[in-house]
Amino acid sequence: MSEQKKSNAILDKKSSRRTFIKNSGLTVGGVVLGGALGSLLVNDKQNTPTNTNEHSGGTNSNPNVALMYFTPDQYRITEAAAERIFPADENGPGAKELLVAYYIDHQLAGAWGMGSKEYTSGPFFEGADTQGYQGRQNRQQIFQIGLKGIQDQSLKTYEKSFIELSEEEQDAILSEFADGNVELRGTSSAHFFGVLRTATIEGAYADPLYGGNANMEGWKMKNFPGHQMSFVNIIEKEFTVVEPMALNSQHKH
Predict the structure, then answer these.
(1) Residues 6 or more apart in contact with residue 40 via CB below 8 angstroms
(2) Phi, psi of 161 (to 5 degrees)
(3) What long-range pairs does 132-139 form, CB within 8 A, spacing at least 24?
(4) Which residues of 152-175 are buried (b: 16+ CB within 10 A; e: fewer)?
(5) 220-240: per-residue pLDDT in tens?
(6) How many helices (H) and strands (E) does the chain have?
(7) DSSP state of 244
(8) Which residues of 24-33 are buried (b: 16+ CB within 10 A; e: fewer)?
């Protein structure tokens, strides 16, 4: 074979090798890319767009309306008790409409309920009133004991569930707890009522971010402006009624 023919054969071999590698890469890429595009095109034709805002579960658009700790029965007892502590009147809505029971539920599900930021180990002694709570139970346990106590006392006194009692009967039960007249195992009824009352008031006035104070109605009753970014534009002007703003409104400026 002549030198020229050998040289051409070598060049052809190298060329066809490069062409094969090049084409192989395109083919592999083409298969993957083609498959992906084909899938998208097929899906685009076959699938109809879905409205992601449609949900099969409840119709309430407030994401805070969800239980994180309570059972449904515990929630209903808490809701009824909170409504008697903070009832609706001519000034505005009560605890039920303000979703206070959801606030309490969410707090119990977190660090506040578990007492994770407090020292709750022994030794345990009865402390003075100025020393605060000295018991071993965290707030989750206190509510478990207290809510069961409310139900048991209702059945014992009226032979009805607490949520079935009249407002006057519910007030009578809660008054017994407030006065410490109901025996509970592990905590006092007065202490439980104190925690429940404090949490109820917090739920009525805390930022809606935490589950209560629905639609900032608690703030509106107090003419509290909430978390305003600034008052510069209304300072030194005539008196202005400022609509309250929640924490999440700061994302809208």
Answers:
(1) none
(2) -65, 155
(3) 133/191, 135/186, 135/187, 135/191, 136/186, 137/186, 137/187, 138/113, 138/114, 139/107, 139/108, 139/112, 139/113, 139/114, 139/115, 139/195
(4) ebbeeebeeebeebeeeebeebbe
(5) 999 888 887 777 776 666 776
(6) 8, 0
(7) P
(8) eeeeeeeeee
d(CA 67, CA 56): 18
DSSP 213: S
Give the separation between CA 196 and CA 217, rounded to whole angstroms: 20
Answer whether 103's CB lies under 8 Å from 206's CB: yes
Question: 């001519």: which residue's tokens?
Answer: 90
Question: Tokens standing for 197?
Answer: 């009352």
Burial (CB count <10 Å: 0-12, 13-18, 19+), residue 195: middle
Model confidence band, residue 59 (pLDDT cutoffs 50, 70, 90): low
The three-point CA angle 247-251-252 to 5° equals: 110
Structure tokens at 64: 């805070």
What CA–CA distance (Å, rounded) separates 37 from 116?
52
